[in-house]
Amino acid sequence: MEQPNLSYINSMSGGDERFEEKLIMIIKDEFPIEKKDYYHNYKSNNFKLAAGNVHKLKHKISILGLEKSYEIAVAFENNLLKGNTNLSQEFESILINITNYLKKL
Asked: What is the DSSP track for 3-70?
């Protein structure tokens, strides 16, 4: 599985460490909340709301340099909008991967 990284954040910052730190803190603050909302809506079988949660989460997936995971998130979001839960395990693996990575930052 691909690993999260800060390459995109570093390229956006132009070397501005304060900007990098601020963006990382935003991700660390928002990600757990968005993940919790996703799980709540998914477990409640409210797949349209869960798709909205995936939509928000996929931006963080992209910012953390996870290109293949982003593609999975796009497909999973589309599946959820159709009431299809295919790719849920793959998406959960992505969330776990990011959670573990953010704990180390």
From this structure: ---SHHHHHHHTT-HHHHHHHHHHHHHHHHHHHHHHHHHHHTT-HHHHHHHHHHHHHHHHHTT-HHHH
Q: Where are the domains of the chain?
A: 7-29+46-104
Give the Cβ contact number of residue 77 at 10 Å: 20
Q: What sign does the CA torsion over 77, 35, 65, 8 have?
A: positive
Q: Name, in order, each residue with C-beta under 8 angstroms of 38's C-beta and a sequence gap of 6 or more.
A: 50, 53, 54, 57, 95
Taking only the tens place, the pLDDT of each residue in 85-102 is 999 999 999 999 999 999
pLDDT tens digit string along 61-73? 999 999 999 999 9
- pLDDT > 90? residue 41: yes
